[in-house]
Amino acid sequence: MITINNIMRPLMAKLILLSPATKIKTPNHPHGQSVVIKIVCLIGDIVATHKVGGFMSHSAKKFCSWCELQDHEREELKLGKPCNQMLALGASHQWYNTGTLRLQQMFAKRSGIRLSEINCLPYWDPVTNIALGPLYNWYEGVLQHHVCH
Predict the structure, then answer these.
(1) Angle at 5 between CA 4 and CA 8, to 5 degrees
(2) Which of 29, 32, 45, 67 is 20 to 30 A from 1 (CA-CA)?
(3) What highest taxon heads this organism's lineage (predicted)?
(4) Is residue 69 classed as helix, strand or coil in its secondary structure?
(5) Is 11 within 8 Å of 5 (Cβ atoms)?
(6) How far apart are CA 20 and CA 24, in angstroms?
């Protein structure tokens, strides 16, 4: 997790600077054209989206980035209480503020969430802005196994 955050940190810093409208001069707009640059969605497989989004692995005790389902409840095939932006971002910042690596590991194990640099974007919602890509969902059919196994 540390490595992906180190790679993402400079990119997120630039995106925060470019988040308000920025004027870019072009041949068609010599006085500048207002442009806003944002990440609106993170699409990938479960492993990648969890790593980039700050969620624990699909094999963790709290494995789901969309609900509060825990690993011992998988057999019931019921959705857990839905996650929301405030809870996910709050847990992410709480993980960061715990201080020591040992406390961070304990917190992540309990909450299922750790810090991700993408959570520093002011408009980012780690629950609704993350999607399982169609390749992994439709073609390979892995979403059905997310809860079942």
Answers:
(1) 85
(2) 67
(3) Eukaryota
(4) coil
(5) no
(6) 13
Is 149 a residue whose pLDDT tops 50?
Answer: no
- Judging by DSSP bridges, how do beta strands 42-44 and 130-132 pair with one another? parallel
If you count DSSP H runs as helices and E runs as strands, how many of each does the chain have, helices first? Answer: 6, 4
The two tokens of residue 97 are 């503020």
CA angle 53, 54, 59 (to 5 degrees): 100
- Count of Cβ atoms closer than 10 Å to residue 108 Cβ: 23
Q: Which two tokens stand for residue 51?
A: 């790593």
Could you tell me which residues come within 8 angstroms of residue 77 by beta carbon, excluding any fewer than 6 positions away? Answer: 147, 148
* Amino acid at site 46: I
Structure letter (DSSP) for residue 37: -
76-100 pLDDT, tens per residue? 777 778 889 999 999 999 999 998 9
Tell me the C-alpha distance between 73 and 77, whole Å: 8
